[in-house]
User: Fold these one by one.
Assistant:
Number 1:
Amino acid sequence: GEDVEQSLFLSVREGDSSVINCTYTDSSSTYLYWYKQEPGAGLQLLTYIFSNMDMKQDQRLTVLLNKKDKHLSLRIADTQTGDSAIYFCAERQAGGYNKLIFGAGTRLAVHP
Amino acid sequence: DTGVSQDPRHKITKRGQNVTFRCDPISEHNRLYWYRQTLGQGPEFLTYFQNEAQLEKSRLLSDRFSAERPKGSFSTLEIQRTEQGDSAMYLCASSLPQNTEAFFGQGTRLTVV
């Protein structure tokens, strides 16, 4: 079946690292994505990882993929108040186009 | 390039009325997608176009919903006889065939009263 699960809420102190976790069920997924959504706005692609990789780093963002456990995580280093938003994990199914299955989102709250 | 553009940004309508939303993808993006996002949930796939051809429709897209992309550029999503359960954010995205990324618009927020 198709299911992407995320914890609903995460609170961190400014300057600390944030780790947002996600599990997915479709082992044929080709790419896995992290999107950010600020209030009333559309989705902003943060980063993605190909399913044959286990890690990708992009400035303050680190994505870890454990394909065996179907577990994906996003680490944000030196979290800032501007990082407060909802973060969505999504899997792209095999099929050659961007049909994405999203999780329900993790709300990240950054406090001073 | 101004990104994916959606119009209107907000729409309030009475139950039973018809509504139509427009999406202008990034120029030269031949793939276009519609998603629906209800409060507190992630986006759910509705339909996919490659050029003017509608190649996949989700079971979420009931008979009251119709999407078109007549010239392979902009797309419209029409909802007939709206119901309160149609209240949601409707998101459009576009991509090129070789892209791993889909770029999303700001969405149209529909409220059915």
Number 2:
Amino acid sequence: EAQVTQNPRYLITVTGKKLTVTCSQNMNHEYMSWYRQDPGLGLRQIYYSMNVEVTDKGDVPEGYKVSRKEKRNFPLILESPSPNQTSLYFCASSLYSTYEQYFGPGTRLTVT
Amino acid sequence: KQEVTQIPAALSVPEGENLVLNCSFTDSAIYNLQWFRQDPGKGLTSLLLIQSSQREQTSGRLNASLDKSSGRSTLYIAASQPGDSATYLCAVPNSGGYQKVTFGIGTKLQVIP
């Protein structure tokens, strides 16, 4: 089944404790992206990747890191999480940037 | 910078009614526009992708139209059902590379049985 998977689905952590949210797709897509969704602000793009080893900032990259060492994986790293990073995070992929995007189920992160 | 607006923010209709959701964008140099559905606490499901060269795209009871020159897209839902209750979002890749994507905040639809 073609899908985008994210892990974990739910995470509660404390300020400053490094964490990684994994994202994997099995559709051989070139383009992958991370978004956060907050009430009243909608979905905002954090980082995107056009291909392996090619990543760039979206609209809200501060406090986040990404890497794309393999085509199928695009982990999101929070080196020192803060409470303002409490949010619902989505990973998405598409064949190319202008093609239909497929979303993962989301990761609900709470930073206390 | 591309800005995407969706009006209304919320909509409540009786079952069976036809309805229109609106999406407007400020930069008309878009490559395509995608409509999504999001159920509470869930991810986004792609509904329709309409290319900039198209004026309409249909899937079942859904019809999306695109007017680039006026910066508008509409999603028409025919014969609404309670199962259509969800938040509907539109998204456009930004001009100047199309790598970045801007989403509207969405329209929350409730279809009352």
